[in-house]
Amino acid sequence: MLPLNSLWLGYMLNGIGKVAPPSLSPQCEKICQQMIKAEYIGAKVSITRSKCPSYYGLEGIIILDTKCTFKIISKDNVIRSIPKSSCVFKVHFGKFNLEVFGKDLCIRPAERCVKKFKTFNIPKL
Question: Does this entry carry the keyword Cytoplasm (predicted)?
Fold first, then answer.
């Protein structure tokens, strides 16, 4: 799955590079909008917060993105299904680590790319 992750990094550099350079300066809101609307298959993620303590600290590469779950494969070659609504994900993007609330991603990936999101609202777990 590491080649899939390198393809995803190229996809994100291409998408965010059109908005702003990856220095995350004044156009942070546009970059956040791009990250929420992006495709996550191939992304390396770790779980930073969760309602279920057994999910905390898990990390791996996303192999399937559904409406309510991510399926990730970890270093020990185990596929785990993680619910989006109860977790906060840290997306490893090159030198940057961006936190994404799972509640913002609880939409089908095809519908997520056309929806407008408010960036000032911080949801509770």
Answer: yes
